[in-house]
Specification:
The protein is α+β, with helices and mostly antiparallel strands. It has five helices and four strands; from the N terminus they run H-H-H-E-H-E-E-H-E. 39% of the residues lie in helices and 21% in strands.
């Protein structure tokens, strides 16, 4: 990945719907070059997808939460794969310190949050789970 790719990614991160013409002008490349670079970044898994970000008042109702996990040992790639495959898991971060994983959830209800938390707690290698429901999003 070079500086042009980084510029391209920066633009797409700010607005993934920018026309190729606009991106090309910003990074100083031809539209065909930008199209090829985007295709390569997608194929390499650098760009994993595009999404719609909804205003808070239009977003589906539900519960967001973080699970803080302590593991018996690290790494546990199979356990992490299982967590990432669960419906409701939005993101999973490996972190340093007393906590090993931070899992961000978005589920429909508190009962679904409890079920998700219980399923994670039963996974091999999970020593402890702390559940932190989100009360209010201050900034995203």
């Amino acid at each position: 990945m070079d500086d042009k790719d980084r510029q391209l990614l920066n633009l797409l991160t700010r607005d993934a719907r920018l026309p190729l013409k606009t991106i090309a002008a910003e990074v100083g490349l031809a539209r065909s070059s930008v199209r090829e670079r985007i295709a390569k970044l997608e194929a390499a898994g650098v760009i994993r997808g595009y999404r719609a970000e909804l205003a808070d008042d239009l977003a589906p109702a539900g519960v967001r939460a973080f699970l803080l996990l302590r593991l018996l040992r690290t790494p546990l790639p199979d356990t992490i794969r299982r967590i990432n495959a669960m419906t409701g898991t939005r993101r999973c971060y490996s972190v340093s310190g007393e906590i090993d994983l931070v899992v961000e959830l978005a589920v429909a209800s508190m009962s679904e949050l409890n079920a998700h938390r219980d399923a994670v707690a039963r996974l091999d290698g999970v020593a402890d789970v702390t559940t932190m429901p989100v009360l209010r999003v201050e900034r995203e």
